[in-house]
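Supplementary Methods, section 5.1.

A reviewer requested that the exact input to the structure prediction be made available. We therefore reproduce it here, unchanged from the version used in the analyses.
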Amino acid sequence: MAQTRTSNFILYGVRLLGLVYTALGALGFLPFHFLNPLHQEGVGARYLLNLVAINTLHNLIHLAIGLSGLWAARELPSARLWGRIAGAVLLLLFVAGMWQAGLEGFPKDQMFLGFLPLNSPGHILHLMSGGLALYLGITARPSRQAGPSTG
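The structure derived from this sequence is encoded token-by-token as follows.
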């Protein structure tokens, strides 16, 4: 019974992250200024929900993360694998983004590798969701039934 709760927790967690990233990716394409205003003083990016710096590529990446999470949440092994991969990638993006920001003197906004806008709310999103995804990917593995001992 405890294993079923853990499995459901992982599946629902991956599904939730998938829904969040799918929603963020889709919302980023909506052309409403009140929802995604353009900030000229930064790197010229739009700000999803007036917080996270985005562009078309960033929206597509969010959609890919989200849709792959929804697909992976159909079965426990794929959900766990998605959690490990997505979590590692998001945490690596957080570290790389913070490293680049540090080299640039921690500007309000930055263009990661010259084409992906990032800012502090985006870094926090990547840190928190990456940590949660990785936790879901490595949390309580199914227990193996002990077979007869050969001794």
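Residues 2-138 form one domain. These observations are discussed further in the main text.
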